[in-house]
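User: Predict the complex with iron/sulfur cluster.
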Amino acid sequence: MKLRGGYNLKIEGRPGGFLDKASLPETLYLPLASRSFNFSQICTVHGRHVVVGDILARDPDNYDIPLLSPCSGQVDLESTTGHVVLHELSGDESGVQIKYDDAKHAHKMGSADFERHKLLNLGAWEYVKDAYTGQTPDPLSTPQAVIVSTIQLEPFLVRGDVLLEASLQQFTRGLEHLQSLLEYQPIYLVLPKIKTDISAKIKEHIRGYAWVKTIDVPLKYPYDNAAILSRHIGLKRGDGFIWSLNADGVVAVDTALTSSKPCVERVISVAGPGAKHPLHLRLTAGYPVAEIRKRYAQKHAVAVDGGILTGQLLTDDIKGISVDCKGITFVPERQSREFLAFVRPGFDRQSYAPCFMSSLRGLFAERLTNSVRGEVRPCVSCNFCEEVCPAGITPHRLHKLIYQDDIDEIERSRIDLCIECGLCSFVCPSKIELMHEFQEAKGAIAKEKAAAAKREADAAQQTDSE
Ligand code: SF4
Ligand code: SF4
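Assistant: Here is the predicted structure with iron/sulfur cluster placed in the model:
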């Protein structure tokens, strides 16, 4: 498979293969809003005692995806704004089988619909996204294809091999469950192009699965991106949903459909150059961020929810790990600013630009901090952003068009193809927040289109009534 652009960052702080289990904290803080969900419909009451798998809230805009209680405890809806807090937590119930109420639902729907209903209500559907939009697909729809990735190339998110080593059997069983939900649509399994023990084991396990097509992908960021892969496979955006999920999602499918258990545990990475010991951690949603910070972060470090390129700053008002958190990245905080540092290239920092003296050292794991070292300045037309862009668009041109507020030309320049991988922002020597600009511009265009569609619908309604 020939893919364009891409770039591998070499930054210190990658989590090793070790998987630790977090002990049960005193209190869980479940955020009602996360990057993908807004659990605005509360389904519990203050003071109620809940057990593992009880539904605490739902997201009415995402097919009623539930926020599940990860363990037994007492609900507190009053002490922390924007969170369901659980006190008096009891025991590790991850081994307890929760019997999904088969009888209640089974007679109302066919078996495939029943299984999809189960995936939704046992918390497995939150792992499934549409490859092109990143939105949650309709659980009752039939996709044109499914893309399952076993690799994760953005630093420093959970490594697929770590997850798979711990649950290879569940993974292959989960693939079978996914296939049972389809008619004839293929499942594309994304594997690393290099030979690894785990990819050899997976290939061995899926031998004879004619419905699985493997795709060997070079280990270069962001070649694991589902939208990029869909384009290369030839799956069209308008031909229906393309379910995309990672190894943890397939394991969750197995947990829900084989064991009828709620998917309340997840594995996240706690990594980055500001982490004391980069590692993988098994925990539940709601685990206190303060506890993670205390145990695993260096003294002056900012926390990012997600990877180093696409993550978002974890602000102080977020008290617990959200249901869709894939990792916490700690980045050392620079207390002082290096004035005009961009004119002082050094040995100790790597740059995409070959003019830095570090290029003489070859590839090395660089220090990374949140300092921009006085580099913010106008575009210098170096073309680096275009070189690394995997979507084949011209970020520097888009940046100029956004500056001119030329919406029509921005659309004609195919901003819609941007997958928001963040590489353009990373390599830009002027430290222009290109990806952020594109996210805002796409949002503004979508809003404008929705408003135009509404105006048109209102006008049609008006004509009908006349
Ligand atoms: S323009 Fe979009 S797809 Fe291209 S590098 Fe930037 S963020 Fe990635
Ligand atoms: S990388 Fe930055 S400075 Fe270079 S062309 Fe792109 S926007 Fe301009």
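Residues 388-391, 393, 395, 418-424, 434-435, 438 surround iron/sulfur cluster (ligand 1) (CB under 6 Å).
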